[in-house]
Amino acid sequence: MHGRFQRANLAPEGFIVVSVQNVGEGVEILLRSRHGSGVCPDCGRLSHRVQSRYIRRPLDLPLGGRRAVLAIMARRFWCDTAVCRRRIFCEQFDHGVLSRYARRTQRLETIVHHLGLALGGRPGAAFATRLMMPVSKDTLLRVVRRRAVDQTDELHVIGIDDFAFRRGQSYGTIICDLERRKPVTLLPDRALETSRAWLAKRPSISIVARDRGGGYGEAIAKGLPEAQQVADRWHLMENSSRAFLDAVSKSMRQIRQSVGSNDIDPKLLTYAEKLQYEGYQRRQETNEAILKLANNGTSIRQIVRQTGHSRKLVRDVLRGQRLDVFRTRPSSLDSWLPWLNSRWESGARNALALWREMRAEGFVGQSGVVSQWAQRRRLAEKANQSGFARTPSAKVIARLMTSARDGLAKSEAILVAVIEANVPELVAARKAIGDFQSMIRSKSAAKLDDWLSIAKGSLIGSFANGVEKDQAAVSNAIVSPWSNGQTEGQITRLKLIKRQMYGRAKLDLLQARVVGA
Q1: Cα dist from 341 to 336, 346, 370, 394, whole Å
Q2: Which residue has the higher pLDDT, 457 or 517?
Q3: What is the pTM of this model?
């Protein structure tokens, strides 16, 4: 059995409880030191001769839900050493219990520090008041800054990435220790020279994980030329998927021709689709003018000057990424199309009545979506067509072509089969992307050289060229157990902390909260 709770348990280590009394809404605990002597801070000699006494009142952890204040009878001693210049000195206590000039015990200071790390200034102060440990928001932030400690551990494997102070305007750099799974430091910008200087001071680093941006790769090569660079696997997978989407966008003209929707009959268009089609015709005039200048050998810079269009628009036209007739998006009606077709064929032609039936079954869309679908069906029937064949968007086609055939509807499987039969270049690009992603999943980089020689001549040639330029880091990403996923997770936590402080904190406080936690 545990012994009875004794009054001495209320005192921190090294003190004796003299008395406990209620003072207002709090509790005051009168303490004195267990030691009968003091140590002179100058000469280090013991002194037993007391000159006077005074009371220190530091705050302590709450007691029974009430605010606790310690009343410590501190002593002043005479220093009897003849050669010591100090004649009187104040009694000092263990720094792990009560520091010099401290207004809080160390155990309360630790709680205040953790509140500041977790919640920041104003939220931490409000929560501390509810815990019967009142402290101001400024004090919380001062404690967090004062107890910030620089990381001195030797680093071997790190991750480096940028984060936004203000998106699109100012950025910083976060560096994480991947072995210990914690952030190490924050740099004030993402400039090459700043990162290079920090890396050059730490020659023990042997592996650096980064994203595929070129700036950090160059900084690592200059600051730590012997270190291995590891590209981020998630970004490699995402970039490869984006490369296939770009390949589909380039092939949209051939895709429309293969599915028989290259020629648009304006009579079968709804009002909203007519507006999109007119915009497409205007875009085609712009595209033809830009392509004509490019075929004559005009540079992109000269085309921008002559036409007045942006550089991005000109590059999209030359890459074949501005050819969609309709900018389609996934619709809430897609999963209901088989049901609608069956109801339409059974004689239900009232769009509002169909919508009410769908609402009763759980449909969340508006009635206008169903009305537009019904209008298109009527127009198609008047033109003696089974339906309006409109090519899906590039995103939808890319998703269908990379999905398992068993998971596709019959109409989707037919669409994919037609595209594969008429656009073999797109099939080759899909195979190349599949092979690349398979290498990452299987962690085998033996076929990377062969893959590059094949992929550079396909629709994903620009992606393959980027992989070739960063081939060493990509190879390490495939076979290495390290990746930059930890760093991305720390950036997510950093964003939460930054938003808690409403983006107004300086770098030192942000680093103290991110690294100190």
Answers
A1: 9, 9, 12, 25
A2: 457
A3: 0.68
